[in-house]
Amino acid sequence: MVGSTKDVPFSADSKLDDEFSVEKTTHPSAQSVLAEDDPHYGLEFPTDEEIATLRRVPDTLPWASYLIALVEMAERFSFYGCSVVFTNFIQQPLPDGSRTGAGGPDGQSGALGRNQQTATGLTTFYQFWCYVIPLLGAYMADVHWGRYHTVCVGVGVAFLGHVILIVSSVPGVIEKEGAIGVFAVALIVTGFGTGLFKANISPLVAEQYKRTKLFIKTTDKGERLIVDPAMTISRTYMYFYLFTNIGALIGQLTMAYSEKYVGFWLAYTLPTVVFMLCPLVLWAGRHRYTRTPPTGSVMLTAVRLWRFAMRGRWSLNPITTFKNMSAADFWESAKPSHHRGESLPAWMTFDDQWVDEVRRGLKACTVFLWYPLYWLSYNQINNNLTSQAATMSTHGVPNDVLSNLDPFALIILIPFCDMILYPGLNRMGLNFSAIKRMTAGYLTGCFAMIWAGVLQHYIYKTSPCGNYAATCDEVSPLNVWIQTGSYILIAFSEIFASVTGLEYAFTKAPKNMRSLVMGVFLFMSAIASAIGEAFIPLVSDPLLMWNYISVAIIAGIAGILFWVCFRHLDAAEDELNRLPDSHFETNEKDT
């Protein structure tokens, strides 16, 4: 089959027509222009009419993507397997006569004996630290090591952190005051390795799929479909997130029982053993992975581009300056073709398309600036919901096992969304686009916190100690499984907001800035953790209900404002995804 000789159309009324100077042909006009090693060789490309009328579907995923997802699964097993017991390890005291921290079937596991505020503060710091370091990981990958090697370094550092974590929990150390110091060092080292890993594993998994252009597929029943690479990247991250949560579920579930019946040393050792799968799989598939080499100081070039575009646009009047900076021709004036005949700066080693890609990447980063207000609601499952479970009747179930409802729900809901919900909406002609999904993520996160707040109200109402349930020796008669609603709603919000955010960071970033934009996306979780520290005064009786309600209000309002601010990008999704490939040469002086 040969490609269509027609150009791919863009909507005439799209706002992106004014913002991006893109070529109208984004697919090969003839098969002869493709080399045999091109991933699009031998494919049929859609005509204008077919693009407007045919149903779109995702492509199959390459095996290399599954291998990298397996690495992510092992890493998340270790990360969540350890962190699920952090709250009890910090907050609850060492049981009488215990040297391991195990509470047994009727007791409460614990070790350091600090209060809930300390536990929330330390776990919130850990979340902050894990998601600040991705910015460094992105820099090291883009400039020096490449994504694959940065992932390998991150695995090595995190392994060292796991070993220190085990030391903090072994008999002879766990009983001493110094255990908290060893534990704090373990958090810093493990979080550093995690940050290097997280910034690069997500782009690496999506880069294994190499097709970037729409093409035609005919089913056994004769139906002609358009295979959309953007939908394929979306599917990649859906299943990447599925593997993530399989690891998280098994890790959290087994470690919660290990902590309760054996001790914290086992809850930290087993995840370390599973973590060793990461270097083994990375090494075994080293010749199969698509690996993007480092490209030099691309960030410096992007900053120079931005400064170059600002020339002559400053004014003593701030309103005039703002209008000049947001003008439709702002980036157009910085394109190399705009300065033909002039002596271009030595750092301008790119073409017009790369300027469009940088602008698109900055738009994605602007979208991500709202994410801390979403993560604020999600982060409640890392500490406060675990503490809430300890104030309810668990009937022998470890209080921290309830957090497994989140990954368990995700394992069910991800295939449901991929195979039923999203295709069903597509067949109905409803475009559940990235911006719509993100908005839905904020709102479902809001509903999850409303559920938690209402539940906290009834805990206070039924607790023998009234509004001081967290420090009460007796628990509320309410069954702990009432928390299920919060976890299921949070799971839906993750699919809509978190998975889509990973997809958005990859598809909107310039190819040589993908780790950086992914790092910015992950850094929003760090900001959320920093904001979460401000809520620490509410994380104690009798104010816990207002902690959840405040977070619910913030997430709800943020979701509404998010849609108001970015709904114009919703209609421009195709244009943003189909910018022509750019050309960029590394400036040796920048590296």
Automatic annotation (TrEMBL):
InterPro entries found in the cross-reference section: MFS_trans_sf, POT_fam
Superkingdom of source: Eukaryota
Transmembrane segments annotated in the record for this chain: 124-141, 153-174, 180-201, 239-258, 264-284, 361-378, 408-428, 440-460, 480-504, 516-539, 545-566
Compartment(s) of residence: Membrane
Gene3D superfamilies: MFS general substrate transporter like domains (1.20.1250.20)
Pfam families for this protein: PTR2
Primary localisation category: membrane
Protein keywords: Membrane, Transmembrane, Transmembrane helix, Transport
GO molecular function annotation: dipeptide transmembrane transporter activity
Keyword S-adenosyl-L-methionine: no
PANTHER family (UniProt xref): OLIGOPEPTIDE TRANSPORTER-RELATED (PTHR11654)
Family: Belongs to the major facilitator superfamily. Proton-dependent oligopeptide transporter (POT/PTR) (TC 2.A.17) family.
Record protein name field: Peptide transporter PTR2A
Naturally occurring in which organism (per UniProt): Cylindrobasidium torrendii FP15055 ss-10
